[in-house]
Amino acid sequence: MSEGNSLGVGMNIDIQRSDGRVHSACISGINPGTDSVTVEWFERGDTKGKEIEISAIFALNPNLAAPAEPPAPAPAVAPAPAQSQIPAPKSRVSSAKVAPPEPNKPLSKATPRETRASSAKARPSINPAAHNGDLYVAPAGPLAKAQKEAPASSRRRSNVVKEVDRIKQMREERRAKQLVQMKERAKDDDGTHPHWEFLKMIREFTDQLDFNPISTSDKVEDHQICVCVRKRPLNKKEQNKKDLDVLTLPSKDKVLVHEPKLKVDLTKYLENQLFRFDYAFNEDATNEMVYKFTAKPLVQTIFNRGMATCFAYGQTGSGKTHTMGGNFSGKNQDVTKGIYALAAADVFRQLNRPEHKSKELAVHCSFFEIYSGKVFDLLNKKAKLRVLEDGKQQVQVVGLQERTVKNTDDVLKLIGMGNNVRTSGQTSANQHSSRSHAVFQIILRKRTSGKLHGKFSLIDLAGNERGKDTQSSNRQTRMEGAEINKSLLALKECIRSLGHRTAHVPFRASKLTQVLRDSFIGDNTRTCMIAMVSPGISSCEHTLNTLRYADRVKELGPSGPGEKLEKDHFFPLN
């Protein structure tokens, strides 16, 4: 692999793909053991890589083969003139002359490693003559020159090295994930999986797709109405049942649902349905990443005298409370990881900035729930509240307590206090199902006058349900479900009106929209909807209903009807 001397990490070379295409790629690693190099390149927004033999690289890149030979004779040529100019005794010169030819003989066939080793062995015999006129200073010259030039070249290649390191890290993560997936596939490929036919069809379909999931480095776009989807992983109950994952998120804004179907003759087939939203978060996305793209852009709105609303919508057990309130560990919830706490921390961070300090704003918080059309204060022993309109047609929640908060810790205490008394119940889908809409509001007021400056409403909606799923439930559960669905329908109508900028907004249709009237009226309002979906095959119908609800909201957004993609343009159909 003597030719490998001219190759280095970070170098751009031409490579040939298996389909005959030739394009440029970056060397990310050299493998002396296999006489090959690892190369990587970007294609359709994704990082791809492969190993190529060095002989194939020199065949495609003839310009690299030429400079590989001159360095070999350099050590032999340089000492020659130096020997002829030194007036030394014959015996000493001849002994000095004997040393260099030995490494010089095998230079054409030796590897760079062998060449360096042989030159190192030759040095002890040369050293005695060094005092007689710097006999072998010449070979050291290029080395010293290279050492001087090394810092400059490292500076020039610093960005390349950083990029290679980043690519290497991404590759290692990708390979680790692929290894886990391969192990899971090996378990399921034995035909014992209850849905193995659908599983095989889904894999055949997804193998044709190019995956480019959302990452923290993606740009955050500005929307008046932002609609995104978050997919949760399969839970333990679904894994034990060997439930099948029917959701695929191939890119940062697309969701594919593989709906299992049966023909009349009982032949199984898949109906692949495509949805597009502003953002699509897969099961690997953290609450921090979801917050960055959804609620974080809304924080600035309330400092600009605006009204912001962020709510999580979805089936019972799809992860709404996890996203808004924080991670669950058994029945205990870590409120520091939820969107409530992350938004509060951002508000205090903005408040301490010079441009906002002069406004003399105070932060207040309120936390209430809407259960069966009634409003209860979660920070005041669940006191029942009344929602009324005053003479100026402003909606007032009479008796609602607003607590002044000084820092994020104060906010976390209020969130924990409210979550402990929130109404929850047991359903077929979730042992700890939220049966009410929880509204946490961060309110900015002037310190002196108490005048409202901005309001951020963060809402954890109750789980939506189908009537057929609650037929076996008691009367109270069915009444709860009816009230929940009524308020969710009203919420959708209000957001549609906001998108259409119509004169009339039907906010009186439910208590939820009545309380949120300020978020639908006026020009300086922004809304974000996080649609939570469950990936299991048993929840497929619920998931489709949630995605259709979210799609209906977005296609009537401020930019007009949503773009309908032709499926053939997005992925190949069989």
From TrEMBL:
Name one molecular function that GO assigns to this entry: microtubule binding
| Gene3D superfamilies membership | Kinesin motor domain (3.40.850.10)
Q: Where is the composition biased (Low complexity)?
A: 79-89
SUPFAM superfamilies attached here? P-loop containing nucleoside triphosphate hydrolases
CDD domains attached to this UniProt entry: KISc_KIF2_like
Record localization: Cytoplasm, Cytoskeleton
Main location per UniProt? cytoplasm
List, alphabetically, the GO terms of the cellular component aspect.
microtubule
Keyword vocabulary terms for this entry: ATP-binding, Cell cycle, Cell division, Coiled coil, Cytoplasm, Cytoskeleton, Microtubule, Mitosis, Motor protein, Nucleotide-binding
User: Locations of Pro residues compositional bias?
Assistant: 68-78
In this chain, ATP is annotated as bound at: G314, Q315, T316, G317, S318, G319, K320, T321
Q: Does the keyword Kinase apply?
A: no
Q: Where is this region: Disordered?
A: 68-134, 143-162
Give the similarity note. Answer: Belongs to the TRAFAC class myosin-kinesin ATPase superfamily. Kinesin family.
Query: What protein name applies here?
Result: Kinesin-like protein
